[in-house]
Amino acid sequence: MLHVEIIARFILSIFVGGIIGYEREYQNRPAGFITHILVCVGATVIAIIQSHLVEDSINLIASHPELVNCLKVDSGRVISQVVSGVGFLGAGAIIHNKGSVTGLTTAATLWVVACIGIACGLGYYFLSIVATTGVYCVLVILKKVKFKIQDKISGTIVEK
After folding, report:
1. Distance between alpha carbon 69 and the CA centroid of its chain, in Å?
2. For residue 42, how many other CB atoms are within 10 A of its CB?
3. What does DSSP assign to residue 31?
4. How far from 27 is each of 3, 16, 44, CA to CA, in Å?
5. pTM of the complete model beyond 0.85
6. How far apart are CA 87 and CA 112, in angstroms?
7. What is the rounded distance in angstroms from the CA atom of residue 158 to the CA atom of residue 96?
8. Mean per-residue pLDDT, 100-117
């Protein structure tokens, strides 16, 4: 993988993590701009490492065919640890207070940013951009729709 390609993946990772993190920061949530960027960049690092592990194993087997039955590479093993491990960060964002639970959306955005970071690290640029756009729309636009629906429902309940 060329150095330019790695730099492009990191720039995209910082950008998409920052967009989602900015929205969380703007909403005064526990994990904001910097946290989301770091999660996304970390996931990108792991995805690039995973890609290199597979590539290195293929090259080693190509140069030493006798190793074909000795080397096994699972192309998703390291990445799967990110997907499950980022839940630990998300758990820190979830707060149980006086019968209510807050921070679930922030925990979910941390998880999805890790997934988008993996997509960046693997070079799925279009997927990364579409996913970021979708997440941002959910956080900004659909949240407003949700509150309008809740206001209508609670308004009709109060009127009855």
Report:
1. 35
2. 21
3. S
4. 36, 17, 25
5. no
6. 10
7. 28
8. 89
With tokens 């207070």, the residue in question is: 97
Instruction: Yes or no: say if 37 and 11 are a contact pair by the CB < 8 Å rule.
Output: no
Taking a C-beta distance cutoff of 8 angstroms, is the pair 19, 40 a contact? no
The H or E element spanning position 153 is helix 143-159
User: Token pair for residue 82?
Assistant: 């990110």
Neighbour count for residue 30 (Cβ, 10 Å): 15
Mean pLDDT of all residues belonging to the chain:
87
Residues 6+ positions from 15 with CB-CB distance below 8 Å: none
Asked whether the CA dihedral 20, 21, 23, 28 is positive or negative, the reply is positive
pLDDT at 159 over 60: no
DSSP 28: T
